[in-house]
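Standup notes, protein team

Yesterday: finished cleaning the Taxus chinensis set.
Today: Fe2OG dioxygenase domain-containing protein structure.
Blockers: none.

Input for Fe2OG dioxygenase domain-containing protein:
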Amino acid sequence: MASGGVLFATKPTVDAVEILVEKGITSIPDKFIRPPQERLAPSAYTPCDHVEEQVPVIDLQESLMEAMMNVGKAFFGLSVEEKQAYAALPGLVMQGYGSKYIQREGATRDWRDYIYLLLQPHSIRDYDYWPSNPSAFREVVHNYSEETLKLAKRLLGAFSMNLDLPQTYLEKAIVKPYQNMLINYYPPCPQPELTAGFYAHSDIGMATLLLQETGSKALQVRKNDKWIPVIAAPGALLVNVADQIEIITNGRYKSVEHRVVADKEKPRISIPVFCDAATKSYY
């Protein structure tokens, strides 16, 4: 697909979770219900004002983070029909708007919608999937991509030095960076105990830089077989170590397993940027 105007005729219809919420459903469809052994314990939905273990956070220019969150909210504030113009085509590289990240037949659905964008290198970008509404979307995403890539390189340098290795060790190990982004929208869910905003998993790349709405407690990380709520601090990013770092460092850094609980009352936006080692030559 060539860059330029959006090709409406080829776009599939997204089976958006948002549509179910707008219909006022009181029970969720079977395709969202997880087997009993995969459901979250009731304590996962209990408000947590005091968390024993705090998760360290990373700082970035606050105005840029606010702008990124604002364009994400503005996009998901559009009508479903407007968002459908950027619907992802079925396939392995699902750029665009969607709700079924796992395409396997019969897979349990997560309670979320999203827009998925490829960012780095620039040659993999397909601007047909970059919304032109809100008008600032493309510029903000571009700037956010550039700054988070710089931050990721600084973090790799810090990780390397902490292992008594040359500062550029991990950056050289990945050869060339590959970066992509999800803007996740989690609508309110009438039966959050039966499903998940995002199932428990670890990220496959090097590191994930996560932007959340201040005060959100929906994200949880596993430590010592205990799920710890990650309370989103104002003006900060969360950094998840991912699988490639664990492999390259022989387990000195551990990839973090995490999940997102569904919320009965409030919608939520989260924006992870995935910084990975390129698996093929894009340069």
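Follow-up from PR in the comments: The CA atoms of residues 71 and 137 lie 6 Å apart.
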